[in-house]
Specification:
There is one protein chain. By secondary structure, the chain is of the alpha/beta class. The protein has one domain: TIM Barrel (Alpha-Beta Barrel). It has eleven helices and 14 strands. The protein has helices at about 50-60, 80-85, 110-115, 130-135, 140-155, 170-180, 210-215, 280-285, 290-300, 310-315, 325, and strands spanning about 5, 10-15, 15-20, 65-70, 95-100, 120, 155-165, 185-190, 220-225, 230-235, 245, 260-265, 270, 280. The strands form two sheets. It has a twelve-stranded mixed beta sheet with strand order 9-10-11-8-7-6-5-4-3-12-13-14. The longest helix is centred in the middle third of the chain and has 14 residues, at about 140-155. The two termini are about 30 Å apart. It binds S-adenosylmethionine and iron/sulfur cluster. S-adenosylmethionine binds next to strand 5, strand 7 and helix 11.
């Protein structure tokens, strides 16, 4: 196995999240303005061949975990072709997906056959009307169907629920209740100002601590050991089959163990969620230079990572307003 590279702060870099499109079939309040964002022209996106080449180059740097995300990955035509290609790349040991679930269900048997290890499903509410208000689309049933079919297929499911004041805090306890009988991992995420417009609030009230305290006002929680490099603090209600976690995406308490990089749909490398993009991989991939040279450039970028999301944000040239759909969630 290729040894994993370490960054300038001694953190192993073993995980890449690839946004395969910036397009989406929903308009989540916390991610995009109602009118949508200006999408990239197709030629600006990395092609499947470029993504496949890039993943092989990353595997040669010791990256062994890949997540496909977006935008909504399933709105990219023939996404399954790409997943098939990536699943065959030597050195990639685990393949994961993040999806809103609207178009996912028909592909579940093949995802299982290709060995997709887990799916993060975005679902912020258990109520159909609130779903429509939050996502500005009436697709609750499709997402719920995907959830049920993933569980039936035996694919591990993490539910990503962004907690938003005035929008879905009444769903927090019902989500915890779901873990009584369903083997789900519920992850409550602090809202970040990545919605294409800027921050929704002067300050964030629903921090991971506030979410935890709220759950603990109704349930006894026991701490579970967190997976290495996990961004979530995980707990279980004793006797329940699933678990719950909180992700301090805004408070950024997890940077010290961060093992991940991101590649945006237009092929920019981000070594931190909060940076501006530090290497134009698309230009490198299209420049005719050999893989080894691209690998060297990547290695250089890995050795110049900011210590944490606060340092990355200070170094930005633009204020943080872009949509998570452009960044690649
Ligand atoms: N469309 C897919 C989905 O929704 O799962 C994948 C892309 S989406 C950008 C990835 C994740 O980012 C989702 O789970 C979503 O909840 C999260 N996300 C988007 N905007 C966010 C924000 N402003 N704050 C926190 N999480 C956000
Ligand atoms: Fe689309 Fe996912 Fe963003 Fe919602 S969070 S608008 S589903 S990209």
């Amino acid at each position: 196995m290729t040894p994993v590279l370490h960054d300038n702060h001694g953190r192993p870099i073993s995980y890449a999240r690839l946004a395969v499109t910036d397009r989406c079939n929903l308009r989540c309040f916390y991610c995009m303005p109602e009118e949508g964002i200006r999408y990239l022209p197709k030629k600006e996106l990395l092609t499947f061949e470029e993504i496949e080449r890039l993943v092989a180059i990353l595997a040669g740097l010791g990256i062994h975990k890949i997540r496909i995300t977006g935008g909504e990955p399933f709105v990219r035509t023939d996404l399954m072709d790409l997943i098939r290609k990536i699943s065959r790349i030597e050195g990639i040991q685990s393949l994961h997906l993040t999806t809103n679930g609207v178009l996912t269900a028909p592909h579940i048997p093949e995802l299982k056959a290709l060995g997709v290890r887990s799916v993060n499903l975005s679902l912020d509410t258990l109520d159909r009307t609130r779903f429509q208000v939050i996502t500005r689309r009436d697709e609750f049933d499709a997402t719920w169907r995907t959830l049920m079919q993933l569980l039936e297929a035996g694919i591990e499911v993490k539910i990503n629920a962004v907690v938003m004041e005035g929008k879905n805090t009444e769903d927090i306890l019902p989500f915890v209740e779901l873990t009584r009988t369903m083997p789900l991992h519920i992850r409550f995420i602090e809202e970040m100002p990545f919605n294409g417009e800027g921050s929704h609030y002067p300050r964030l009230n629903w921090t991971y601590r506030a979410i935890l305290e709220y759950i603990q006002s109704q349930y006894r929680l026991e701490k579970l050991p967190d997976e290495p490099h996990s961004t979530a603090y995980t707990y279980r209600v004793p006797g329940f089959v699933g678990d719950v976690g909180v992700i301090a995406a805004f408070s950024r308490t997890f940077c010290g163990t961060c093992n991940r990089i991101r590649v945006t749909a237009q092929g920019m490398l981000k070594t931190c969620l909060y940076d501006d993009g530090v290497l134009d991989l698309k230009s490198l991939l299209r420049s005719g230079i050999p893989d080894d040279q691209i690998r060297m450039e990547l290695g250089k970028a890995f050795r110049q990572r900011p210590k944490d999301g606060f340092e990355a944000e200070r170094k930005r040239t633009k204020v943080v307003t872009e949509s998570m759909s452009t960044i690649g969630g």
